[in-house]
Amino acid sequence: MHAITDQELIDRAEIGDLLVRYCQAQDQDEWSLYEGLFTADATIHFPGMPMESRSAAEFGRFLQAFNKTRVSGQHLVGNTLYRFTGNHADVLSEALYITLHPTETPGTLRRVRGNALYSDHLVRTPEGWRIARRDIAQKNVEIDDAAYDPALVVGFKTTSATRWFDAPGRQS
Amino acid sequence: MRLTLADLRDRAGLQDCMNRYAQGVDQRQWPLYDSAFAPGAQVEVPGYMQGTLGFVAFRGMLADTFDAARLSGQHFLGNMHASIAGERAHAVTEFVATTVEVATSGSATREVTAGLYVDDFERTDGVWRIVHHRIMRKSADAATLPFAPPIADAVRFTLTADWAHALPLIPGHS
Known about the structure:
The complex is a heterodimer of chains A (172) and B (174). Chain A is an alpha+beta fold.
């Protein structure tokens, strides 16, 4: 291991931006942030889970459809370790998430809480770093139904419906 | 405070060190865990064990005590505040730890613990390493939850998988 160089600081910041954009895209339903995260042929895998691998583009469409009924979601990413090999990087991060979903019972939301690992392989392209492969491994999943004050639910939905990345004062 | 590039490099190095510790523990990558510590580093857990323990003995305690029933663990770090003075540093870091252990077939014990890591570091050969690691707990919440066997298998995969990406991150291996 070596002392961190200025170039590595920049590379880490650029890759860190991608990791955050992936989360913000799905959590704030801001799909323009999903564009440019992946290489054109990137794939996403779910080792250990009964889910088939798919292209990053296909997974993006799946998430967008999934979000149509979702009340809110938050994915925090951290503890990221980086390894650089020329124009390639391997990155391993922890993820902590919570999502809320409607149920048929008024005032009750289905709560999904979990912990996961994101293992990413990236390549440096002329346009910047891009994820070429992502593996998502689950560490814990808890699903329960919880009662919420209706006013609170309205607040959650407002958070999700607001376009936070519009210019200040122009959120709709 | 005006930051310099050298400050940013130091912060990244300290963060790396803490991430090696957390990922080493969580992915059971013990060489990665070891790489976070300077030779002779001590670990202290007030309220849990008396005095201090060398980091190698502490690693043995983690593996021997918890691995038999363990399904997964995540020590999520944030809000690190670091002060750096030459080749020494001190940092206070928040953590939220989620651990899952098999209780019975079809159920698991999930514990969420929040707390602080208080660490003293030294830099040798350009790499920051912990010389004293103190674990201070703030809250704990344990529950026994239904955990279907297929989910347990998927979760256990994160422990048994060969995280080939992680190992080369160990100092001296890249």
